[in-house]
């Protein structure tokens, strides 16, 4: 193939370099060519982002006859050196909150479920330390990564207790008293100051690097290459950092995308220009050279699990003739929280059926209010999303999920899918002929509203805001040909073209009714309609009696008032009383306005 000028400069470069590569710019092709241009006797290490990328890269390097290139992930390197050497046992899926309570013998101090809230924060503190480049837990301030007012208040009050038990939990893993996590053996690998015997080390997806692995990487004597896209940094919530900003290496660019056309490139630039509302003026350049015409492989991409699941429900209930759909990462990953809590457990709590609840944490809750209080104090986003789904669909959920699962195909039959569903995080690195973007991303209007005035950097979480913009950029750049984007997400003065189809967004009340109507539709294989059950209707009436404004539409003035109260750190309970709505309704509105992503 014929390389671009930028690619040739990278291939012929010497010394440590970093490559800022836009989506679809052929970075893998460039890296393979770079490795091929090194002496055949040299030893090259390619660090892949995850296992699936590792397997794909291994095949590509082997196909090119590059047998001197070893492909690993950070964890596969650490596993070999730490787990085997110390004969550790690995906790494959991490620890659940109730397991940490039992292991550490945490006691309730009188506050409702305090031991479980503390365990949740201990779990996060362990992950924060293990992913950091620090030598000791005491060198970190866990408060720096807690943003919700209720959660921050709890952590501040119990900080010594949380920190002490974090160190105790790490010590138990270190001694082999309990199974170790994946993050732990990577941390122990970093603390061992390993020497990697390679002449060249290629670090891929450098915009989302673990500080622990980055510390190892920087200490090596090999020639170092970092590849990434600053604007695809979307794992800050996992404590990842952008190594392209950390490395003082010569910078190269790959600014031409072979995936999509100039029109899509212009839309991507327009999205990135939103960053100029919160930072110094930046210039963005992407040259779209793609010429795809196919629309065979179609995908719906959402910001959140909630947004995706709601769109999937709407899709399967409206399009009854669709036979096959596919979820990137499997459908089960969207109905279970990281800790293993099932959507059905939360539904059983909602229906006051404790005997049917399997998850030990949810079983501790007397009602939904207690679960919502727990979520406030822990910032457990996934549990929060489950509550929103249940508020929206209630007892229709089992039938709806059954319908979705009946149409879902496995990995080996992905090619049969008439529509692929994915969150942004799960489709990173993927590409599709045609995409539809769900209306749950941040918008220009929200950014302008939140950054207007004299607010300080302490009031606006710039890194989180940039990451939200990155999420939409990643979504937009998954397409090869056609994009369907809600009008609310379209940047002002954005180009309209045949490749950019703008979707009209219904007013909020109409949209809610449309979703309810879709949920009531009959499925092809069901005799009973998918509709709101009598039990849910009764619950709604009770809620309406108790909270007179619970189902009234939100207005712009109310949104502004809510934002001000959130900024002032007023509790969810007090806001619920003030607005005459349920705590769940207030929490849902905060998420919809994305206040938790913008404000500390």
Automatic annotation (TrEMBL):
The molecular function terms of the Gene Ontology recorded here are: 3'-5' DNA helicase activity; ATP binding; DNA binding; hydrolase activity
Which of UniProt's keywords are assigned here? ATP-binding, Helicase, Hydrolase, Nucleotide-binding
- What is one Gene Ontology biological process annotated in the Swiss-Prot or TrEMBL record? replication fork processing
Annotated spans, Disordered: 505-552
Task: Give the superkingdom in one word.
Answer: Bacteria
Q: What is the lineage of its organism?
A: Bacteria, Pseudomonadati, Bacteroidota, Cytophagia, Cytophagales
Write down what this protein is called. Answer: Superfamily I DNA and RNA helicase
Q: Does the keyword Nucleotide-binding apply?
A: yes
Q: Does the keyword Repeat apply?
A: no
Q: State where ATP binds.
A: 21-28
Which residues belong to the signal peptide in this entry? Answer: none
Q: Which residues form the UvrD-like helicase ATP-binding domain?
A: 1-277
Q: Where is the composition biased (Basic and acidic residues)?
A: 533-549
User: By its UniProt entry, which InterPro entries does this protein fall under?
Assistant: DNA_helicase_UvrD/REP, P-loop_NTPase, UvrD-like_ATP-bd
């Amino acid at each position: 193939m014929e390389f671009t000028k930028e690619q040739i400069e990278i291939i012929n470069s010497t010394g440590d370099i970093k490559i800022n590569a836009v989506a679809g710019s052929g970075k893998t092709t460039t890296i393979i060519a770079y490795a091929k241009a090194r002496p055949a006797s040299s030893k090259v290490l390619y660090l892949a982002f995850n296992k699936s990328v590792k397997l794909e890269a291994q095949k590509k390097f082997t196909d090119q006859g590059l047998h001197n290139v070893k492909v690993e992930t950070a964890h596969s390197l650490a596993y070999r050196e730490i787990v085997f050497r110390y004969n550790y046992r690995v906790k494959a899926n991490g620890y659940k909150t109730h397991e940490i309570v039992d292991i550490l013998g945490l006691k309730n101090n009188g506050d409702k479920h305090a031991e479980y809230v503390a365990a949740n924060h201990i779990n996060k503190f362990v992950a924060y330390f293990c992913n950091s480049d620090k030598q000791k837990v005491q060198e970190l301030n866990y408060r720096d990564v807690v943003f919700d007012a209720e959660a921050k208040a709890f952590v501040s009050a119990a900080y010594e207790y949380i920190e002490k038990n974090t160190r105790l939990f790490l010590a138990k893993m270190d001694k082999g008293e309990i199974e170790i996590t994946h993050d732990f053996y990577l941390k122990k690998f970093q603390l061992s100051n390993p020497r990697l015997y390679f002449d060249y080390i290629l670090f891929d997806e450098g915009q989302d690097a673990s500080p622990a692995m980055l510390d190892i990487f920087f200490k090596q004597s090999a020639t170092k290459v970092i590849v990434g896209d600053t604007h695809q940094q979307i794992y800050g919530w996992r404590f990842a950092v952008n190594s392209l900003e950390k490395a003082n290496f010569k910078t190269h660019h790959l600014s031409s995308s072979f995936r999509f056309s100039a029109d899509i490139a212009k839309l991507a630039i327009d999205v990135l220009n939103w960053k100029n509302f919160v930072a110094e003026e930046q210039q963005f350049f992407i040259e779209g050279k793609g010429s795809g015409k196919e629309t065979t492989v179609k995908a719906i991409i959402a910001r959140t699990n909630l947004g995706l699941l709601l769109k999937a429900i709407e899709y399967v209930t409206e399009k009854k003739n669709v036979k096959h759909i596919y979820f990137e990462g499997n459908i089960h990953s969207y109905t279970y929280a990281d800790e293993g809590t099932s959507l059905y457990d939360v539904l059983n709590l909602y229906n006051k059926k404790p005997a049917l609840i399997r998850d030990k944490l949810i079983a501790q809750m007397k009602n939904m209010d207690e679960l919502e209080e727990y979520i406030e104090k822990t910032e457990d986003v996934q549990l929060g999303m489950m509550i929103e789904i249940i508020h929206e669909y209630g007892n229709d959920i089992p039938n709806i999920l059954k319908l979705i699962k009946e149409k879902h195909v496995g990995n080996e039959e992905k090619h049969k899918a008439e529509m692929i569903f994915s969150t942004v995080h799960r489709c990173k690195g993927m590409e599709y002929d045609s995409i539809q973007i769900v209306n749950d991303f941040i918008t220009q209007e929200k950014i302008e509203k939140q950054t207007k005035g004299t607010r300080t950097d302490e009031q606006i979480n710039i890194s989180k805001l940039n990451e939200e913009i990155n999420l939409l950029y990643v979504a937009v750049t998954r397409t090869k040909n056609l994009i369907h984007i809600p009008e609310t997400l379209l940047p002002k003065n954005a180009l309209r073209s045949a490749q950019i189809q703008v979707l009209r967004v219904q007013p909020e009340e109409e949209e809610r009714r449309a979703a309810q109507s879709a949920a009531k539709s009959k499925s092809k294989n069901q005799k009973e309609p998918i509709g709101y059950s009598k039990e849910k209707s009764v619950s709604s009436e009770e809620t309406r009696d108790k909270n007179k404004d619970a189902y009234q539409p939100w207005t712009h003035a109310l949104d502004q008032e809510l934002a001000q109260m959130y900024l002032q750190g007023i509790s969810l309970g007090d806001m619920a009383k003030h607005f005459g709505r349920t705590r769940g309704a207030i929490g849902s509105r905060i998420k919809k306005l994305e206040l938790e992503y913008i404000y500390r």
